[in-house]
Amino acid sequence: MNKILEVRNLSKIYGPGCPQCLESTGPEADTNLCPHCGSVVAIHDVSFDLFEGEILGVMGESGSGKSTVVKNLYFDQAPSGGEAIFYDRDKQHDLFALNAAQQRWLRNHRFGMVYQNPHLGLNFNISAGGNIAERLLMSDLMDYGAIRERAKALLARTEVLLSRVDDLPRNFSGGMQQRVQIAKALATQPPLLFLDEVTTGLDLSVQARILDLILEIQQELKTAMVVVTHDLGVIRLLTGRAIVMKYGRVIEAGLTDQILEDPQHAYTQRLVASAL
Amino acid sequence: MTLPILQVEGYGKHFQLHEQHKLIPSSHNVNFSVSAGCLTALVGPTGAGKSSVLKGVYRTYLPSAGRILYRDAMGHELDLVLASEHQILELRRREIGFVTQFLHCLPRQATLDVVAQPLLALGVSRIDARQRAAELLSAMNLPERLWSVSPATFSGGERQRVNLARGFIAKPRLLLLDEPTASLDPATTEQVIGLIEGLKSEGMAMLAIFHHPETTSRLADQVVELAPPPAVEELLKEIA
Known about the structure:
A: alpha/beta; six-stranded mixed sheet; 10 strands; 36% helix; globular; B: alpha/beta; Rossmann fold; 8 helices
């Protein structure tokens, strides 16, 4: 088993920041808002490893910083500190030392992202097929026929009716929009996929089919994934290991079954005890 | 005499419940070993921490004390208490199986796929994995009409057979069994006992908890008696 991603001391602070920010925030302080300068310490000192073909869960309540972690890794935001190394075949990329063009290249070719909000992942002004074509074009596939074939194959794989390839995403149900997003994220067969609350807000039967689809894809393509969710069921179903976050810090990390059956931290114990 | 596969030395486990400010002792100073082709049975009253030992070996529980030395297929020795998460995941995939007391599976997954799952994780093709699952299920007398539906609607005995088949299928070197025959009728119990004997003679090492003393005496090569852990105050006295 080889490492695909190594994140060390990742940190993101919104606001001016001051010398007391770090000691005045976090789980002990019970806030992520610095009382001295008003900055928000969204995440601080987040470290983890991800191996090829592995699914890592990032769990925690709203505002714990879990989405910020993947947004930084996908270059939606720039971190305030820390580093991340992406191991791609025989190359190593120091993610936050790359220039904008290099970051864009990785984003388009080697990473995939599925957002909770389909508006972030899809262009609502062009068709479902067009959305996938857009990503294929960015990854240097130029032949019209080939693009269309590949788009259709991807949508078929994610169980989107082919008769709707030319429809606009706004005319799709929430579950269908997520399927198109997943197809788009997988278009370039990236070895690394970020999933940010992808089933939150969908009804249960749709949730189950999307999660099954993600598991099948993971088995077929051996894609490594970072799954952000507050849903313990999703954590249990998809992930082998998990980290638990609170007020921007990692408070616990371990094997998923161990975290759910023998949680160590007071907060994790409360979280697991409140499962339905 | 070959070296044991598993050696547990001074294993202890307690739960610290922060919210209730309580320390719950579960296992205390447990010592035993398991060898290839042998079955070690844990016995003792309810609350003696039998399941907690199995879960500690599988690392579903983080052990609080002791060493759990595991000798892998290459002959390397590893303390499971200190092993990394990836080392544990790799061992679970290739060497250590666990048949839990109750079957946990998705209510929409066909029985054949539930049983085939450990083989898929090893990279066996879907067709071959399902084929092996079918062979195993018919050897365990699970009616073929049930194979394509989820175990969710099965009786206790049927479910438990599915659970066992999933534990056996990848032929782990060490199999942990938590009351595998508890909900089975006498005829099925006999079949399961036969299966366990067969796997033992193939060299599988087993660590088991059985509901019936009679099953223990028939299958166990070694019996380890666990006593309930001393109350916390005594534990604390010992530390002090």
